[in-house]
Each structure stands twice: as C-alpha cells, then as structure tokens.
Write a structure and sequence with these properties.
The protein is mainly α. It is built from six helices and no strands. The radius of gyration is 16 Å and the shape is globular.
C-alpha cells in the first residue's frame, strides 16, 4: 500500500519514478488494472469487442513508446519504474474517467440541461492533467527541459490513444 501511495503521489507531481522500485506482482497488477479499466470505459463508449481491441492496441503502444523513449535517452534500466509510474497514474485518471461516465449518466437521468457540457469539461481537464503527469514523469526520468517533456508527453498521448483510435476507424 505504501508503494501505491508513492506512485499515486506522482499524480500530484511529487516523487521521482526512478527512485521507486516496484515488485513484479505490483507491476503486473498495474497492467491488469489498466487493461480492465480501459476495457470497461471503452465498452461504455463502443461495443466490448472494439473496446477490448483498442485497449490492447493502446497497451502495446504504451509499452513500445516507453521502451523507445528509454532507448533514445539511454535509460533502459528504468523500464519497470517508468511503465509502472505511467500505468499507475493512467489508472488513476481512468478511474476518474469512469466516475465521470457515471456522473454523466446520472445527470442525463436527472434531465440536467448541461450534462454533456459538464462531462466534456471534466474529460478535457482529465486529459490535460494526464498529459501534465506524463510530462512530469518523463522530466524526472530524463532530466529534460519542461518543453521537451511536454512534447514527449503529448507525443506519448497521440501514440497511445490516437493511433489505436485511428486504426479502429479504418
């Protein structure tokens, strides 16, 4: 539980992912939660088969992107720390996104006039926060300027969400 708290504190821009050493069990639980929560959210948006395929593609792209960044920056030894940090923080954001879906459903059921606007606004905030978190993690790991880490985080977001979504539209 203590390790989870340390990883979750990355969502508030505290700690350094390089200084956290997850166990194999912890790392796999992060990946499994990532897959399950992603499939749940995507299945609420699309059909379960498409959602499962898209989340699987996102997972492959996430591992590939993290591995590529680590190879480019010659920090391969931090692979476990980096993917665990990003997946734990993404799991946190995905949990908030799932709650947002529930809130949207509740607002629609209550016939709230601005239910869609509220849901979209929260979604935009969550995406912005997610990019900021990934940027922070990359900046801590690679000791880059903030502008470089923001570009890398935005690229990571496009690679892990944009490409699988584009693939699904084909």
């Amino acid at each position: 539980m203590n390790l989870l708290k340390k990883y979750l504190s990355l969502c508030w821009f505290k700690n350094n992912p390089i200084e956290l050493f997850p166990s194999k069990s912890f790392m796999w639980k992060a990946v499994i939660f990532y897959l399950i929560s992603g499939i749940i959210v995507e299945s609420l948006i699309a059909d379960p088969a498409d959602g499962t395929l898209e989340v699987s593609l996102r997972t492959v792209m996430a591992f590939s992107s993290i591995a590529t960044y680590l190879l480019v920056f010659k920090k391969w030894q931090y692979f476990n720390q980096m993917y665990t940090a990003i997946f734990i923080c993404e799991n946190f954001i995905m949990t908030l996104a799932t709650i947002t879906e529930g809130l949207y459903f509740w607002l629609v059921m209550k016939h709230y006039e601005y239910a869609e606007e509220v849901s979209i606004a929260i979604g935009v905030l969550l995406v912005g926060w997610y990019i900021a978190i990934v940027s922070y993690i990359l900046r801590q790991a690679f000791l880059t300027k903030m502008s470089v880490s923001v570009i890398l985080a935005f690229s990571y977001f496009i690679l892990t969400y944009g490409l699988p979504m584009l693939f699904m539209d084909i």
